[in-house]
Design a protein that fits this description.
It is elongated, with a radius of gyration of 27 Å. By secondary structure, it is an alpha+beta fold. Among the domains are: 109 residues, Tumour Suppressor Smad4, CATH 2.60.200.20; 121 residues, no CATH class. Strands 1-11-10-9-6-7 form a 6-stranded antiparallel sheet, with no helix packed on it. The protein has a 5-stranded mixed sheet with strand order 3-2-4-5-8, with no helix packed on it. Strands 14-13-12-17 form a 4-stranded antiparallel sheet, with no helix packed on it. It is built from 6 helices and 17 strands. 16% of the residues lie in helices and 32% in strands.
Length: 333
């Protein structure tokens, strides 16, 4: 049973005292016979729980899916990504006017600012006439000067619902542009899911690497990124034994990140990849153990929602030939 696999604690039911029991029996004696029979026919709460022992799992999965949809449709979610523009060395004006080096397709000022790239530094300058009113840089009023750009916290230029992040990509810089009023967000009707299915909740054997390895992960840009891979998860779907090799998005991450693809990518799921985030194995990363893979929580990568997203792809060993009809289906705007 799924309840055993997830090691859930059974629900407890409160006891009734003798006085309460007596009152209940007295009240029952006053009821019409038909009412008593109707009560007898209705299943008690414990009986209903026995009829669906996976009710708690279904409820938790439903809540997770609701939260995911809310995240996708959030004011800074992937549906708001309307541009990814590379900066060239020298002056890069940006705004909605056609004479800008970076033209922004949103309701915003014609000339917002100028980003000057000199070697490994980026400076923000005001356009002729000064910065637009209400323009912020990292939540403070915009002012000219050099921007401090780190991978963990890129500088953020905002004007009302417009958000422009200045990103470092190798030895180049790019602008990630989001608009909370983007049509993709305002017309969002929800995500598409397979029906919950407990057969896609499986216990996997954790086989650690000693020492951990570095896995080269391909991206949609044709580049690769190096991420630590602490081991493999071995499991069965039906009578088929399979392996998936996860990575850690951060060295101290408490979640395993699985990038995979299965046979449904040719028909009903996103063509390039789906992602799965799973808690660490029961005995940690460096010891053999077990972990639960719930493929009902497979999700689409950001590229499914915006052509401007840059996504990592599954390594060769995670491209499965089996069919996993679980989790998120292709997004249909």
């Amino acid at each position: 049973m799924l309840e055993q696999r997830l090691r859930q604690m059974p629900r407890s039911w409160p006891r009734r005292g003798n006085f309460a029991l007596g009152v209940a029996l007295a009240a029952l004696a006053l009821l019409p016979a038909a009412s008593i029979l109707a009560q007898d026919a209705a299943p008690t709460a414990p009986a209903a729980a026995r009829a669906d022992p996976d009710a708690a799992w279904r409820q938790d999965l439903a809540a997770w899916r609701v939260a995911r949809e809310q995240g996708i449709a959030a004011p800074n979610g992937w549906l708001t990504l309307i541009g990814m523009e590379w900066l060239k060395p020298g002056l890069n004006s940006f705004g909605t006017a056609a004479d800008n080096a970076v033209r922004i397709r949103a309701v915003a000022p014609e000339h917002i600012g100028i980003l000057t790239v000199i070697g490994k530094t980026v400076q923000l300058l005001a356009p002729a006439g000064g910065f637009p009113a209400d323009l912020l840089v990292d939540r403070a009023p915009a002012r000219e000067g050099e921007l401090v750009i780190t991978a963990a916290r890129p500088p953020l230029i905002t004007w009302h619902g417009l958000k422009i992040a200045v990103l470092a990509r190798g030895d180049r810089f790019a602008l990630s542009i989001k608009d909370s009023d983007a049509a993709a967000r305002t017309s969002f009707q929800g995500l598409n899911w397979y029906a919950p299915d407990v057969k896609f909740v499986v216990e996997a054997k954790w086989i650690p690497f000693t020492p951990p390895r570095i896995l080269k992960i391909p991206t949609v840009l044709g580049t690769t990124i190096d991420l630590p891979s602490p081991g493999v998860a071995e499991f069965k779907l039906g009578n088929t034994t399979l392996r998936l090799q996860p990575v850690l998005e951060e060295p101290n991450s408490q979640v395993l990140f699985f990038l995979l693809r299965d046979a449904t990518s040719r028909t009903t799921t996103y063509a390039t990849a789906r992602y799965l985030h799973i808690r660490l194995p029961d005995h940690g990363l460096d010891k053999p153990g077990t972990l639960i893979l719930d493929f009902n929580r497979l999700e689409n990568p950001p590229c499914a929602y915006s052509i401007y997203a840059t996504c990592p792809l599954p390594p060769e060993q995670n491209r499965l030939w089996v069919t996993i009809e679980a989790g998120e289906k292709r997004y249909a705007p």
